[in-house]
């Protein structure tokens, strides 16, 4: 892998993705379950980090879970209940793009939960995670950091780029004012949930490409080195002239616009 | 948009994606439902085409549905039943990456279904689609074409590229031998399911980038021209010095590997 | 079975339930699917009729589906969509306690749907049912009739009986005034949905016990006469003295209150 | 309520069911959640006990959950995962007819789980239940006892009664031989899971009717005494002559068989 001090993003990402595929193969063959919680500041790049991991993985082996606001039905349930059906089954990777930690982050800072709901969450989250880890789930918890200057720059980009404008939610705009409160909330969260068996990993995402490579490399290092290569299936060149598409019934392909 | 004869892929795709975002906004505001069936040859580029549409859309407004083999429970049900829960709700785009047409394609050619199951499907599919269209669902059916020479080249790439090897399934390797049979199956399918109210659109994917642009442009043309621009939220520069991440509790961010 | 003019309810019901169990066995062994739609006047006895059929059947082979009001998400979908996941799988009986016909009954009469929604339903319901029947689902549609005098008597009982008061909903009380409108709505519904391949069966439930027996007997007659008896498993008396419960750890059983 | 030493089953059950309806009302109005685990010997009468509680309750407020064998997908998950979606939401009663305790009962005795799975369950079950109770779920755990003489008698009845023969599973017949092992397994289970905040209640079901009354009465005593009566809706006799069913379109009601 690339040495300290320099990297070519595309080359290095490709190298890491090849390793990820081998890990996915190992996870499948050994019936392991992998749960990756991705949290962090607004604009830090949670979605992009998950995409860079999944980009070339078999879509049947990995799922991203990004739950919206709880429904009324869900609001009347145990807080962790709605996440439970999404836990990984044997052979699966699951990525939580935001997670139950919403309650310790945005819900705490923006006062979307009551103090007693917050307190209950803080008491239960280490217990819930211990249950899952004790059961053999490989749990990774990443928190992506970014300085306010970068964050502001990225909000501004969203504002100006017609492809990203929809990302700027009213909650984002209010959250903007509360950088320091989010720091405080994160620290409270780390204090109670950074456990030996379920540790947090903070990754600097001021440079998103660098952040992604670091996150993936850290992730990869936590799997056995001895990973299977794919077995090459038998494949020999076809005899005869290759066929072309032919169209005897309607419709024919559309004409190119270009 | 780009003129006949030339295009810059990145520029043009970006232009189209901005239009797609406006369409998504219109779909949301008007409670429309959009169902896009994407079918085609192996290696044609179904997944990539869907990704290029969704890349910058709000993930809460669009879903991709790629159902695996039916479970034993599902095999004992009405063939269309397992697809039904995935139909779009008001405001949603749903992309079927392969679809109920499996029965008229791979299942027919590879003999994974009985002749009477095939016959039943061919009789029912136009009726089912008419029900949905009559109910107001905006249904698009794309079939991506590719010549055998290209297909072989892409199979070979999958074989050689460690990032793509997992994509080469045993069924793919057998399907390889049956290019002509797939053509025949497609023609039978077009004959019964290319209807005025639920037409097929064939798109040439021998050049995938060109194919994607053509598909998206065709798609866009079927929506009203008069699309809303996003309203710019109020956003003013922050006063004071931007904050930096500060770490008073453990853990600190990991050191960069690079 | 009991002759014309007289019946002992308990004896006859028991005889019919034994037949139902044999039918269930036949349904299981032959992978059949049975869908029973139970509709009718308020207070007619839909729930009780379903219970009398299911009472001694294997709970794993039969399900009752009583959907509430559609959620907001469901309201934005194809009207039939939310019913689809509940259709029977191979070997199963499914009872719809009220059904998609809500739209032609209570929703029509109480104006809970728009005229165009009603019209769309009336156009689509025969097509949807034909799809299911053509696919091999054994479809039964029962409509339970009751005169207004009886209905009033039963409403009054609900009012007076503390075990039944919760059953008296505000919609019931309004529906009360609309006996004639319900008759009219039923007739419109019969006109479009009483089809050779999906016929309605009306059963007089002015006497509920008699109604249940008639409904079940009609149902039974539509299955092959040649039904398997259960095979008797080997079972021999145990040797030795039978054991008694013994309690070495706490808690012990509670003392009887009686 | 009935005094010590005598009871009329039907009268007393009715009295208790009226109380249950008031409790259900209180649960609804206060957004409480009630989880009732019903375990016990084969033939003890778990299903009948649950039915007697639910018989006159609003079906929208209470659910019975009787999960079958885990699917292959579920077998690869955290053991408790498949139960989680069924936990009660605000206002609901949920009855588990058998439960996660299968692992400490039938799976332990019949060796359907590995010793390490059993051990993991025994370590986790008190923690899981504490999480739920701390979250405010009202948890009741009933274990129905029955002596072997009664159990044998009931097995014999199932064998002889055509309405009950399907209930006699091969596992039942093997379990029959293991009365003492089940006692032992129950004691081990009580030792680790009879907790102050999640106690077990054992109820003698040698007499099923008496057992049901005792169980329900015990259950009722754990709710506040001050329960709301239903408010009587306005209801006045209808003016005019009550209408009769009239049939202008086909089909008419079927002729009575009796």
* Oligomerization: homotetramer
Q: From the 3D coordinates, which CATH architecture of chain A would you assign?
A: 3-Layer(aba) Sandwich
Got a strand count of chain A? Answer: 5
Mean pLDDT of chain A: 93
- Give a short account of the largest sheet of chain A: 5 strands, parallel
**Biggest contact:** A-B, 84 and 84 residues
Q: Tell me, what's the shape of chain A?
A: globular
Task: Write out key terms for the chains shown.
258 residues, 5 strands, homotetramer, 41% helix, Rossmann fold, 5-stranded parallel β-sheet, alpha/beta
What do you see in this structure?
The structure is a homotetramer of 258-residue chains. Chain A is an alpha/beta fold and 258 residues long. The first copy, chain A, has one domain (9-221): Rossmann fold (3-Layer(aba) Sandwich). The first copy, chain A, has nine helices and five strands, in the order αβαβαβααβαααβα. Chain A has helices spanning 9-29, 46-54, 72-75, 106-109, 115-134, 148-160, 170-175, 179-193, 208-221; strands spanning 34-40, 62-65, 93-97, 138-145, 200-204. A five-stranded parallel sheet of chain A has the order 2-3-1-4-5, with helices on both faces. In chain A, α3 (72-75) links the parallel β2 (62-65) and β3 (93-97). The first copy, chain A, is globular, with a radius of gyration of 22 Å. The first copy, chain A, starts with 8 loop residues before the first helix and ends in a 37-residue tail after the last helix. The mean pLDDT of chain A is 93. Chains in contact: A-B, A-D, B-C, C-D. Chains C and D meet through α1, α6, α8, β5 and α9 of C and α1, α6, α8, β5 and α9 of D.
